[in-house]
Amino acid sequence: MKLPDGWKYIKLSDIGNISKGSGIKREDSNSGTIPAVRYGELYTSHNDYIKEFYSFISEKVAEESVLLKKGDLLFTCSGETKEDIGKCAAFVSDCKAYAGGDLIIFSPKVPCDSKFLGFLCNSYSINKQRYRYAQGDSVVHISTESIANLKITFPPLEEQQKIAEILCEQDTIISLKQKLLEQKLQQKKWLIQKLMEVSHTNADCEKVFSFGGVVIDKSGWKKEILGRICTITGRIGFRGYTRSDITSSDKGVLSLSPSNIIDGQLNMEDSTFITLEKYLESPEIMIQKHDIVFVKTGSTFGKVGYLDSIYQKATINPQLVIVRSNNLVRQNLLYYILKSDYFQNFVNKIVVGGAVPTLSQEQLSKIMIHLPTLPEQKIIAQVLSTADKEIALLKSIIEQEKQKKKSLAQLLLTGTVRVKT
Q1: Which of 91, 85, 127, 129 is nearest to 107 (CA)?
Q2: Fewer CB within 10 Å, N or C, the chain?
Q3: Could you tell me the pTM of the whole model?
Q4: Residue 117 near residue 47, CB atoms below 8 Å
């Protein structure tokens, strides 16, 4: 690809020096007050440039780690996948901070904009180079030499600064939307918590309460055990399946596992499919629209999913149960109750521990809840459903803004679209 006038192709080593971080174990991450960066934080917390710190170390730990200079770039040199290895973040703060082990440090020796380099070194074209340089399978590594050999496009400084400014503005838009999303999620959590707290108190002052701007009278609420207001159905033991029952997605039927439930919704990545014969063997656990699935076995016990948008044949694996309400409770309200902190805390108390935590269907069915009248259930469910819709809309907007940033980065970092300086 032909570069714009004034741009050039260079190796990262042409404009700076490469070194490595050192020290800072997990247990050191809160040993003091000095800001520090650990390699795992580049995967979980830092994108393109470092905005805040999550580790603070002591003077003693700092002596064993590496002092950063403003403008340094940090790269991860170990990780779990080739796609993520070598993720980069620029250190642009004036504060004294340190880099831990498994980090490669790039220190510019020519005038450049480090935020620009942070965006650039996480771009699609650089990601492809890092992928090719990656070594290993279960634990993936990339060498300092490989980072030094990354080929980048290098525009004049004024253009670097303008490109970084535009992409930072897009980051600000995304950040503001994410903060609003966090507020909406917290508001919804508070609503559910308020509902459960009020439902389990006998105080007269709480007979009537405000819920999302709606007045609720709980004087007609009743205590019910879960097994009386819904059916709880799991896979019968002798109808479990083995490897021979697993097939391809084009030939089989989806069998839901805990990993298919993310934030209460269905996620189709990394799915398992079983033969049609095995699916037909257990009609009682054939998934229906609006079913609730509940994880009763394994490390994610208590996880809940609401399947309001499933349009294919599906069943469950032995770790899950299907929860279906009867005419005493609305299905969507039942979902919110099962997800509530109150219910989850109760589940934590009764689960049987060990190598594989387990909760029986009988234990689940005996959990006591306070149930509103059906008219009030409708009102409560509508308030929570409205909150869910606002959250879903915000998530969609945030995803659109992230895609916009990717498109902007691709156009600006390659010089396809020039900026005015």
Answers
A1: 91
A2: N
A3: 0.79
A4: no
